[in-house]
Protein backbone atom coordinates (compact mmCIF):
# COMPACT_ATOMS: atom_id res chain seq x y z
CA UNK A 1 0.00 0.00 0.00
CA UNK A 2 2.82 2.35 0.93
CA UNK A 3 4.70 1.61 -2.29
CA UNK A 4 1.61 2.30 -4.40
CA UNK A 5 0.99 5.63 -2.62
CA UNK A 6 4.62 6.64 -3.13
CA UNK A 7 4.37 5.96 -6.90
CA UNK A 8 1.22 8.07 -7.13
CA UNK A 9 2.88 10.91 -5.24
CA UNK A 10 5.87 10.78 -7.59
CA UNK A 11 3.56 11.04 -10.62
CA UNK A 12 1.77 14.03 -9.12
CA UNK A 13 5.11 15.66 -8.30
CA UNK A 14 6.34 15.06 -11.87
CA UNK A 15 3.14 16.60 -13.27
CA UNK A 16 3.41 19.63 -11.01
CA UNK A 17 7.10 20.05 -11.83
CA UNK A 18 6.39 19.85 -15.59
CA UNK A 19 3.66 22.44 -15.26
CA UNK A 20 5.97 24.71 -13.31
CA UNK A 21 8.59 24.37 -16.04
CA UNK A 22 6.01 25.18 -18.72
CA UNK A 23 4.77 28.20 -16.77
CA UNK A 24 8.31 29.42 -16.21
CA UNK A 25 9.23 29.12 -19.90
CA UNK A 26 6.02 30.87 -20.88
CA UNK A 27 6.90 33.74 -18.59
CA UNK A 28 10.53 33.85 -19.75
CA UNK A 29 10.48 33.52 -23.56
CA UNK A 30 14.15 34.54 -23.74
CA UNK A 31 15.27 31.66 -21.52
CA UNK A 32 16.89 29.70 -24.38
CA UNK A 33 18.59 32.84 -25.62
CA UNK A 34 20.51 32.85 -22.35
CA UNK A 35 20.99 29.04 -22.33
CA UNK A 36 21.66 28.22 -25.97
CA UNK A 37 23.51 25.04 -25.16
CA UNK A 38 20.24 23.46 -24.08
CA UNK A 39 18.74 23.86 -27.55
CA UNK A 40 20.99 21.18 -28.99
CA UNK A 41 19.96 18.74 -26.27
CA UNK A 42 16.19 19.20 -26.57
CA UNK A 43 14.22 16.96 -28.90
CA UNK A 44 10.55 16.95 -29.90
CA UNK A 45 8.71 13.86 -31.24
CA UNK A 46 7.70 14.01 -34.88
CA UNK A 47 5.40 11.58 -36.66
CA UNK A 48 7.52 11.31 -39.82
CA UNK A 49 11.11 12.01 -38.80
CA UNK A 50 11.33 10.53 -35.33
CA UNK A 51 12.67 13.57 -33.44
CA UNK A 52 13.52 17.15 -34.36
CA UNK A 53 15.25 19.87 -32.40
CA UNK A 54 13.29 22.64 -30.72
CA UNK A 55 14.78 25.17 -33.14
CA UNK A 56 13.70 23.09 -36.13
CA UNK A 57 10.21 22.80 -34.71
CA UNK A 58 10.01 26.54 -34.13
CA UNK A 59 11.14 27.20 -37.69
CA UNK A 60 8.51 24.79 -39.01
CA UNK A 61 5.79 26.55 -37.00
CA UNK A 62 6.94 29.94 -38.25
CA UNK A 63 6.82 28.70 -41.82
CA UNK A 64 3.30 27.35 -41.32
CA UNK A 65 2.22 30.68 -39.82
CA UNK A 66 3.79 32.61 -42.69
CA UNK A 67 2.08 30.36 -45.24
CA UNK A 68 -1.30 31.01 -43.60
CA UNK A 69 -0.70 34.75 -43.55
CA UNK A 70 0.37 34.67 -47.19
CA UNK A 71 -2.84 32.87 -48.14
CA UNK A 72 -4.87 35.48 -46.25
CA UNK A 73 -2.97 38.28 -47.99
CA UNK A 74 -3.50 36.66 -51.40
CA UNK A 75 -7.22 36.39 -50.66
CA UNK A 76 -7.44 40.08 -49.70
CA UNK A 77 -5.54 41.08 -52.82
CA UNK A 78 -7.91 39.05 -55.00
CA UNK A 79 -10.95 40.64 -53.32
CA UNK A 80 -9.46 44.09 -53.94
CA UNK A 81 -8.86 43.23 -57.60
CA UNK A 82 -12.42 41.92 -57.99
CA UNK A 83 -13.85 45.07 -56.40
CA UNK A 84 -11.70 47.26 -58.62
CA UNK A 85 -12.91 45.36 -61.69
CA UNK A 86 -16.56 45.71 -60.62
CA UNK A 87 -16.15 49.44 -60.03
CA UNK A 88 -14.62 49.86 -63.48
CA UNK A 89 -17.51 47.94 -65.03
CA UNK A 90 -20.02 50.06 -63.13
CA UNK A 91 -18.27 53.22 -64.33
CA UNK A 92 -18.48 52.03 -67.93
CA UNK A 93 -22.17 51.17 -67.47
CA UNK A 94 -22.87 54.64 -66.11
CA UNK A 95 -21.15 56.27 -69.09
CA UNK A 96 -23.26 54.21 -71.48
CA UNK A 97 -26.43 55.02 -69.54
CA UNK A 98 -25.68 58.75 -69.79
CA UNK A 99 -25.11 58.37 -73.52
CA UNK A 100 -28.59 56.93 -74.13
CA UNK A 101 -30.60 59.22 -76.37
CA UNK A 102 -34.05 57.99 -75.37
CA UNK A 103 -36.00 55.50 -73.26
CA UNK A 104 -35.91 52.82 -75.95
CA UNK A 105 -32.12 52.88 -76.00
CA UNK A 106 -31.99 52.73 -72.21
CA UNK A 107 -34.36 49.76 -71.94
CA UNK A 108 -32.23 47.87 -74.46
CA UNK A 109 -28.89 48.84 -72.94
CA UNK A 110 -29.54 47.71 -69.35
CA UNK A 111 -30.22 43.99 -69.94
CA UNK A 112 -27.67 43.66 -72.74
CA UNK A 113 -24.91 45.30 -70.69
CA UNK A 114 -25.61 43.20 -67.61
CA UNK A 115 -25.54 39.96 -69.60
CA UNK A 116 -22.39 40.79 -71.52
CA UNK A 117 -20.31 42.80 -69.04
CA UNK A 118 -21.38 41.21 -65.76
CA UNK A 119 -21.98 37.66 -67.02
CA UNK A 120 -25.47 37.26 -65.59
CA UNK A 121 -27.92 34.68 -66.91
CA UNK A 122 -31.25 36.52 -66.76
CA UNK A 123 -32.25 40.19 -66.60
CA UNK A 124 -35.76 41.61 -66.35
CA UNK A 125 -36.94 45.22 -66.04
CA UNK A 126 -40.41 45.75 -64.57
CA UNK A 127 -41.48 49.38 -64.51
CA UNK A 128 -44.55 50.90 -62.92
CA UNK A 129 -46.91 52.69 -65.37
CA UNK A 130 -45.58 56.13 -66.39
CA UNK A 131 -47.53 59.35 -66.06
CA UNK A 132 -46.83 59.95 -69.74
CA UNK A 133 -49.23 57.52 -71.42
CA UNK A 134 -47.28 57.60 -74.70
CA UNK A 135 -44.43 55.71 -73.03
CA UNK A 136 -46.62 52.83 -71.86
CA UNK A 137 -46.14 51.02 -75.18
CA UNK A 138 -42.88 49.55 -73.92
CA UNK A 139 -43.32 45.97 -72.69
CA UNK A 140 -41.27 46.71 -69.58
CA UNK A 141 -44.18 48.66 -68.10
CA UNK A 142 -46.42 46.52 -65.88
CA UNK A 143 -50.03 46.08 -66.94
CA UNK A 144 -51.39 45.25 -63.47
CA UNK A 145 -49.41 47.54 -61.19
CA UNK A 146 -51.55 46.85 -58.10
CA UNK A 147 -51.01 43.08 -58.28
CA UNK A 148 -47.29 43.56 -58.89
CA UNK A 149 -46.88 45.95 -55.97
CA UNK A 150 -48.81 43.60 -53.68
CA UNK A 151 -46.58 40.68 -54.68
CA UNK A 152 -43.37 42.63 -53.99
CA UNK A 153 -44.65 44.99 -51.31
CA UNK A 154 -42.11 44.04 -48.62
CA UNK A 155 -39.17 44.25 -51.03
CA UNK A 156 -40.33 47.59 -52.41
CA UNK A 157 -40.88 49.06 -48.96
CA UNK A 158 -37.39 48.00 -47.87
CA UNK A 159 -35.96 50.12 -50.68
CA UNK A 160 -32.73 48.10 -50.66
CA UNK A 161 -31.36 45.41 -52.99
CA UNK A 162 -32.39 41.91 -52.02
CA UNK A 163 -30.25 38.86 -52.73
CA UNK A 164 -31.20 35.22 -52.37
CA UNK A 165 -34.19 33.23 -53.56
CA UNK A 166 -37.79 34.24 -54.08
CA UNK A 167 -41.18 32.59 -53.85
CA UNK A 168 -42.20 30.67 -57.01
CA UNK A 169 -44.94 33.17 -57.84
CA UNK A 170 -42.45 36.04 -57.52
CA UNK A 171 -39.94 34.35 -59.81
CA UNK A 172 -42.73 33.66 -62.30
CA UNK A 173 -43.82 37.30 -62.28
CA UNK A 174 -40.25 38.48 -62.88
CA UNK A 175 -38.80 35.93 -65.29
CA UNK A 176 -41.81 34.28 -66.94
CA UNK A 177 -40.82 31.14 -68.86
CA UNK A 178 -37.29 31.28 -67.44
CA UNK A 179 -38.49 31.18 -63.82
CA UNK A 180 -37.72 27.48 -63.29
CA UNK A 181 -34.08 27.97 -64.32
CA UNK A 182 -33.51 30.81 -61.86
CA UNK A 183 -31.97 29.59 -58.59
CA UNK A 184 -30.84 32.88 -57.06
CA UNK A 185 -31.86 36.49 -57.58
CA UNK A 186 -30.62 40.03 -57.04
CA UNK A 187 -33.60 42.35 -56.90
CA UNK A 188 -32.92 46.08 -57.25
CA UNK A 189 -35.68 48.59 -56.43
CA UNK A 190 -35.49 51.53 -58.81
CA UNK A 191 -36.07 54.86 -57.11
CA UNK A 192 -37.12 55.46 -53.53
CA UNK A 193 -38.98 52.36 -52.32
CA UNK A 194 -39.06 51.16 -55.90
CA UNK A 195 -41.39 53.92 -57.09
CA UNK A 196 -40.12 53.41 -60.65
CA UNK A 197 -40.13 49.60 -60.56
CA UNK A 198 -37.68 46.72 -60.18
CA UNK A 199 -34.56 45.48 -61.92
CA UNK A 200 -34.30 41.70 -61.46
CA UNK A 201 -31.06 39.81 -62.09
CA UNK A 202 -31.25 36.01 -62.06
CA UNK A 203 -28.67 33.25 -61.99
CA UNK A 204 -28.77 29.49 -62.50
CA UNK A 205 -26.27 29.18 -59.62
CA UNK A 206 -27.80 28.88 -56.14
CA UNK A 207 -25.03 30.88 -54.44
CA UNK A 208 -24.41 33.54 -57.09
CA UNK A 209 -26.70 35.88 -55.14
CA UNK A 210 -27.12 35.05 -51.47
CA UNK A 211 -28.57 36.83 -48.46
CA UNK A 212 -25.15 37.29 -46.84
CA UNK A 213 -23.48 39.14 -49.72
CA UNK A 214 -22.62 42.84 -49.63
CA UNK A 215 -25.17 44.83 -51.64
CA UNK A 216 -23.30 48.16 -51.77
CA UNK A 217 -22.31 47.60 -55.41
CA UNK A 218 -25.88 46.64 -56.37
CA UNK A 219 -27.19 49.72 -54.57
CA UNK A 220 -24.94 51.99 -56.66
CA UNK A 221 -26.06 50.21 -59.82
CA UNK A 222 -29.76 50.64 -58.99
CA UNK A 223 -29.24 54.34 -58.21
CA UNK A 224 -27.46 54.90 -61.53
CA UNK A 225 -30.15 53.14 -63.57
CA UNK A 226 -32.96 54.87 -61.65
CA UNK A 227 -31.43 58.33 -62.09
CA UNK A 228 -31.20 58.03 -65.88
CA UNK A 229 -34.58 56.31 -66.10
CA UNK A 230 -36.26 59.12 -64.12
CA UNK A 231 -34.87 61.64 -66.60
CA UNK A 232 -36.69 60.01 -69.51
CA UNK A 233 -39.91 59.32 -67.60
CA UNK A 234 -40.24 62.92 -66.50
CA UNK A 235 -39.48 64.34 -69.90
Q: Explain this structure to me?
A:
By secondary structure, the chain is an alpha+beta fold. It folds into 2 domains: 2-62, no CATH class; 100-233, GAF domain (Beta-Lactamase, 2-Layer Sandwich). The protein is built from 8 helices and 6 strands; from the N terminus they run ααββααβααβαββα. The chain has helices at 2-27, 31-34, 54-99, 103-117, 145-151, 153-158, 168-175, 216-233, and strands at 43-46, 50-53, 122-127, 162-164, 184-190, 197-203. A 4-stranded antiparallel beta sheet has the order 3-6-5-4, with helices on one face.
Task: Output the keywords.
8 helices; Beta-Lactamase; 235 residues; elongated; 55% helix; alpha+beta
Tell me briefly what this model is:
The chain is an alpha+beta fold and 235 residues long. The chain is 55% helix and 13% strand.
Largest sheet: 4 strands, antiparallel
- Helix and strand composition category: alpha+beta
Q: Secondary-structure element order, as H and E?
A: HHEEHHEHHEHEEH
Number of domains: 2
The CATH architecture of the largest domain can be named as: 2-Layer Sandwich
- Estimated share of beta-strand residues: 5-15%
Distance between the termini: 103 Å
* Portion of residues within helices: 55-70%
- The first-level CATH class of the largest domain is given as Alpha Beta
CATH topology annotation of the largest domain? Beta-Lactamase
Provide the spatial order of strands within the biggest beta sheet: 3-6-5-4
Low-pLDDT ranges: none
Give average pLDDT, whole number: 83
Q: CATH H-level name of the largest domain... which superfamily? A: GAF domain
Principal-axis shape: elongated
What radius of gyration results from the CA coordinates? Answer: 32 Å
Count of helix runs? 8
Amino acid sequence: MSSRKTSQQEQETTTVDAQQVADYLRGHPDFFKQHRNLLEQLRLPHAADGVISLVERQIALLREGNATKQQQLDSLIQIARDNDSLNNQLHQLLLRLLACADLTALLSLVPNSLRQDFSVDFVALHLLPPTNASLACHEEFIADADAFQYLFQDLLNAGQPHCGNLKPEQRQALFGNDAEAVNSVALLPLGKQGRLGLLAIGSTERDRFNIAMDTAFLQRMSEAVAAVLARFLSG
